[in-house]
Design a protein that fits this description.
This protein is α+β, with helices and mostly antiparallel strands. It contains 7 helices and 11 strands. It has one domain: Sandwich (Jelly Rolls). The strands form 2 sheets. A 6-stranded mixed β-sheet has the order 2-1-3-10-5-8. A 5-stranded antiparallel β-sheet has the order 7-6-9-4-11. A hairpin with a 7-residue loop joins strand 6 and strand 7. The structure holds fe (ii) ion (FE2).
Length: 221
């Protein structure tokens, strides 16, 4: 018989799959193929949260409920105590900046270090504090972002202007695509899916306008 943690984990993966099934765009099918392959698989023993995300998760889930995603929000709330929230700490802090280094967390649901076992695939949740710039970076893993909150500012080359995109509009980054995210006035809560090359470390791409972007005060978002 499944434990409470197993039920919560498999349920949230089902909800993510249902949610992604309502989105269009490149990469969505690739991420769902991984869910089909690994999603109901063996669970690793539950581990405690390493980073507290409670306040930001609550804010983000309230927004998701307000968007009509009630069952999905409930599933995320139920699974949160069983997730292992950690920081992505491969970037030198001098390059990625203190605001991002101390202002984000991610939790792998399916993957080599995920709550559910999977290989060369990573599906999880990603949370960033409001107002933080996730500076320009790239990685070998092709990546789907499905933001559950918004709007947030995106760009796909250093020095380019930000493009503000609403919640529920997926972003697909091919391997090594440069990208940066300026989080809006609400927490950034996002599904991420890496479909291959998940052990290749991400690197920061320098851009000379980071301070300007980080200091921009948002009024209308
Ligand atoms: Fe990325």
């Amino acid at each position: 018989m499944k434990s409470v943690a197993e039920k919560a984990l498999h349920n949230v993966v089902d909800e993510i799959d249902r949610y992604l099934g309502r989105l269009d765009g490149p990469g969505v099918a690739d991420v769902r193929a991984g869910i089909m392959r690994w999603g109901q698989g063996s669970i690793r023993p539950a581990s405690p949260q390493h980073l507290s995300t409670n306040k930001r998760m609550s804010e983000a889930l309230a927004l998701l409920r307000a968007d009509g995603e009630v069952a999905f929000a409930l599933a995320l709330e139920a699974v949160d105590p069983y997730l292992r929230w950690v920081a992505y700490d491969y970037y030198p802090r001098s390059e990625i900046g203190e605001a991002f280094a101390g202002g984000h967390a991610f939790a792998s649901l399916i993957g080599e270090r995920g709550s559910i076992m999977g290989a060369d695939y990573d599906l999880g949740l990603f949370l960033i504090e409001p107002g933080v710039l996730y500076r320009d970076h790239r990685h070998a893993a092709p990546e789907l972002y499905a933001p559950l909150t918004g709007p947030h500012g995106w760009r796909f080359a250093p020095l380019e202007p930000l493009s503000w995109k609403p919640a529920h509009q997926p972003i697909w980054n091919e391997a090594h695509q440069h990208h940066a995210i300026r989080v809006g006035n609400v927490p950034f809560l996002c599904i991420f899916g890496w479909t291959s090359d998940v052990n290749e470390i991400a690197t920061v791409i320098r851009s000379d306008d980071w301070v300007e972007l980080e200091e921009t005060v948002l009024s209308s978002t």
